């Protein structure tokens, strides 16, 4: 019986060995599965992190591009405003220049009018002086017969008018 007992024990040991080996295999298989799951989770987390970083980079890049575009638009708007201000300044300068030219023309015309008036006054003064000289000369010389007759006729006419007035007055 000892042999049967030994055989039974041997079988129990074999069975236990088999169970142990199968358990180790199962444990190893389970550990392998768990390790594989951990690796897959780690890979998934890595991919999620990469996606998140890519999205962050894209958002940052888009924000930078938008900021650059806004700055460019602001610069362009500033340049347009400066150009408009310069154009307005030039228009104001041109308007002021036109006003000054008009004032200068007006002054030149006024000076011409004054010079013309002065010339006319001088001409009249010369004419009057000439006539005065002529009158002085004619007083010094005898009047021509035509002038004497004309004056005599004027004086006679004046006497007739005077007589009429005195006649009406009486």
TrEMBL record:
Domain of life: Bacteria
Region (Disordered): 1-170
Compositional bias (Basic and acidic residues): 7-24, 35-62, 86-140, 154-170
UniProt protein name: Uncharacterized protein
Source organism of this protein record: Brachybacterium saurashtrense
């Amino acid at each position: 019986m000892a042999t049967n007992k030994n055989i039974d024990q041997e079988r129990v040991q074999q069975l236990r060995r088999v169970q142990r080996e199968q358990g180790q295999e199962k444990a190893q298989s389970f550990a392998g599965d768990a390790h594989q799951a951990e690796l897959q989770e780690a890979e998934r987390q890595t991919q999620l992190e990469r996606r998140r970083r890519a999205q962050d980079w894209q958002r940052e890049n888009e924000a930078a591009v938008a900021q650059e575009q806004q700055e460019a638009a602001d610069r362009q708007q500033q340049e347009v405003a400066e150009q408009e201000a310069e154009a307005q300044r030039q228009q104001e300068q041109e308007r002021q220049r036109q006003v000054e030219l008009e004032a200068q023309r007006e002054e030149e015309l006024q000076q011409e009018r004054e010079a013309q008036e002065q010339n006319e006054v001088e001409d009249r003064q010369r004419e009057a002086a000439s006539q005065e000289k002529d009158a002085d000369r004619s007083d010094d010389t005898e009047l021509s017969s035509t002038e004497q007759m004309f004056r005599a006729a004027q004086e006679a006419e004046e006497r007739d008018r005077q007589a009429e007035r005195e006649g009406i007055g009486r």
